[in-house]
Amino acid sequence: MMKPTIKTAFAAFVTAAAVSAVVLGTAPAQAAGNVATPAVQDWSFKGLFGTFDRASAQRGYKVYKEVCSACHSLNLIKFRNLQDLGFSEAQVKALAAEYEIQDGPNDDGEMFTRKRTPSDPLPAPFANEKAAAAANNGKAPPDLSLITKARAQGGDSVIKVSLKHPGGFTLGADYVYALLTGYGEPPAGVEVPDGGNYNKYFPGGVIAMASPLAADAVEFSDGTKATVAQMAHDVTMFLSWAAEPELEARKRLGVKVMLFLLVLTGMLFALKRKIWSDIH
Amino acid sequence: MQNGVVKWIEHRMPIFSFIDHSVGSGYPAPKNLSYWWNFGSLAGLALIIMIVSGIVLAMHYTPHTTLAFNSVERIMRDVNGGWLIRYLHMNGGSFFFFAVFIHIFRGLYFGSYKYPRELLWIIGVLILLAMMATAFMGYVLPWGQMSYWGATVITNLFSAVPWVGDSIVTLLWGGFVVDNPTLNRFFSLHYLMPFVILGLVIVHIWALHTFGSNNPTGVDVKGPQDTIPFHPYFTIKDLYGMGVFLLIFCFFVFFAPNYFGEADNYIPANPLATPPHIVPEWYFLPFYAILRAFTNDFVLYWPISWLMTAKLAGVIAMFGSVILLALVPWLDTSKVRSARFRPVYKWFFWIFVLDWLVLGLVGAHPPEGAWVLIGQISTAYYFAHLLVILPILGVIERPLALPESISASVTQPAE
Which of A57, B13, B84, B337 is 20 to 30 A (C-alpha) from B148? Predict the structure, then answer.
């Protein structure tokens, strides 16, 4: 039995909830006017049971290593983390040993260089941010460790994906993929200054980074054809992992926690009904 | 009280009867409390989640401008279970405010602030203020772009205070810009404030237990037939509510942990690059909208424009919008507590809720175009509701007949 007062209250509450959903949905409004909206991609790490596609992420590491790492650091990733992607311990050791790092001081008080080990971070292309800026027209290329969480509307989110972006939500991964494949000729009326490149997904349309991917820029050892779209997909997969390496563990634990809470809440509800059964 | 040890302790310090009279069978509660009354215990649960997860985070966090951002990422990546603790804390803040906002609106709907619960209500407003200060300082700690620029914008507000404004800002900053001393003092205060909140919560519950809970009819408890013991009836009801609350909370923690956050805060703080939009967390948006509504062409500002700058007026209005809530027991002149028996107020209540949500919407958008006007209208309405509608409505409204008692209302519905 629903009393009219409760009904009106309920109707008002639903209205209020709808409005608040819009509030959240459009919260970080886009600044730039005519920026293209990145298309929704079907990432393997979406959804309640999503995981990273290991083969794709390994190819993505190769793209990062051979293309992106010329300018972009990945400071938060250590070689040992690459084992998450399915590289064996020996492979990771070998990958790390390809690079040197300065260590020390030793017992004689001197700095020395040695081969990198799995506990060392991936090498950065520039010695420091100033050097990176100096080599790139005064603005350092951003570190990519968190790029898919730090662009568009951030990291993977079940809700955003399931709603298919009605409030303008774009996953960081969709944005990164769109950006990598979004280069082209500027439309009439868009002035692209020297040192700039037109990209329809970049706020303002002009980005300092030149189109980084060209067909067959890398050679994949598994025989996958290195098209621009393929490389963009793989490197975005890799960077999504780099930004949220805990994602798989988080979702696995989340499913268990939700099941536990469902059972617990169900039992608490039954107990509540039982205890309250003598109250009118 | 059969146990000898219990008896021994009870004789020297009657803690067991104290607990029984607080949340046990010795505390009578109105038998008609609805699920809207669950949100107090839910807010309490959120506070405990925040304190426990926060203490663990503080063991791993480094409050230094060059290390803070990376220390948070180290928690996310290298500390065992660190991502869980951090996401619990991050989303716990949102859910704490969510519970508290519903708790406050419940109080407004059922007139829980009226005699003899005015002090209980005022303590509640103080808790809200303390929560806002805590949340603001906590958001600065990861030292991302929004942390830094949010801190810059909000601390700069105090510069609008006449004569001593600049000194206050310098004191808040511990220098002449937002920098390491700012981060250090915010960390220290962010650790302190939750315990201030905890103290206020204890006083809040003390005041509550003096007269007991209000109830959906707003009619006083007339005798034992109107009440049931808190335990087991409301302990189990609160526990069930906590189960539902945790289900929703954990869904966000595990499957959409950054839903309430800003992508920009995963970019390390950079004093040389201002983000295109500086947006506070969602729970501050309505207050942010009130702050920004005060521009030179805002009608509400004209009468005071000779006295102060629009910026100062906005700052006063923003803090005033919260502090005014403390005066609601006196602004509402109606003798009837529950909106169930106030046919006109009921509508104004829901318009007020809607107005508050619209303010949130305005706060999320850049102050351009129609949003400016919508923000000013909804700001004016916010204050009109509290300062004009509430006092007048209590005098002119004809309330419905009140039930004789809680029991009478349960056996014979009013409508």
Answer: B84
Q: By CB neighbour count within 10 A (0-12 exposed, 13-18 middle, 19+ buried), where does B21 fall?
A: middle
Q: Which helix (H) or strand (E) holds B328?
A: helix B328-331
Strand partners for B28? B229
What's the confidence (pLDDT) of residue A21?
45
pLDDT at B1: 57
Prediction pTM value: 0.92
State the first-to-last Cα distance of chain B, in angstroms, to the nearest integer: 46
Q: Which two tokens stand for residue B334?
A: 């109606």
Residues of chain A with pLDDT under 50: 1-10, 12-14, 16-33, 161-168
Q: Is the peptide bond before B116 cis (omega within 30 degrees of 0)?
A: yes
Distance CA B35, CA A6 (A): 13
Q: Is B204 a catalytic residue?
A: no
- Alpha-carbon distances, residue A185 vs A190, A203, B123, B241 (angstroms): 10, 16, 62, 57
Question: Are B267 and A172 an interchain contact pair (Cβ–Cβ within 8 Å)?
Answer: no
Q: Which of B25, B240, B284, B351 to mutate to test the interface with A (most CBs of A within 10 A)?
A: B240
Distances (CA, A) of A219 to A222, B86, B371: 9, 39, 52
Closest CA to B238 of B105, B113, B103, B126: B103
Give the whole-angstrom CA distance, residue B58 versus residue B191: 8
Catalytic residue of the set B60, B64, B237, B365: B237
Burial A252-279 (b: 16+ CB within 10 A, else e): ebbeebbeebeebbeebbeebeebbeee
- Taking CB atoms and an 8 Å limit, are B254 and A251 in contact across chains? yes
Structure tokens at B37: 């009354």
Distance of CA B398 to the CA centre of its chain: 32
Amino acid at B329: P
Q: Which residues of B touch A146 (CB under 8 A)?
A: 73, 266-267
On chain A, the residues whose CB falls within 8 A of the CB of B289 are none
Q: Which of B261, B285, B413 sits opposite A23 (nearest CB)?
A: B285
Assembly ipTM: 0.93
- Residue A257: closest C-alpha in chain B: B250
Measured between beta carbons, the chain A residues lying within 8 angstroms of B358 are: 19
pLDDT, tens only, A62-73: 999 999 999 999
Tens-place pLDDT, residues B98-134: 999 999 999 999 999 999 999 999 999 999 999 999 9
Contact state of B360 with A23 under an 8 Å Cβ cutoff = yes
Q: Which tokens go with A225? A: 């054809």
Q: Is the peptide bond before A105 cis (omega within 30 degrees of 0)?
A: yes
Catalytic residue among B71, B112, B213, B407: B213
Q: What is the CB neighbour count within 10 angstroms for residue B6?
A: 12
Which of B237, B256, B267 lies nearest to residue A157, judging by beta carbons?
B256
**Annotation says B385 is catalytic:** no
Report the C-alpha gap between B121 and B328 in whole angstroms.
Answer: 9
Put simply, the answer to whether A272 touches B262 (Cβ < 8 Å) is no
- Give CA separation, B175 vs B137, B144, B156, B183, in Å: 17, 20, 13, 11
Residue B78 annotated among the catalytic residues of the structure: no
Which residues from chain B sit within 8 angstroms of residue A19, using beta carbons? 354, 357-358, 361
Is residue B30 helix, strand or coil?
strand
B378 has catalytic annotation: no
Residue B188, Cβ neighbours under 10 Å: how many?
Answer: 12
**Chain B residues touching residue A81 (CB < 8 angstroms):** 77
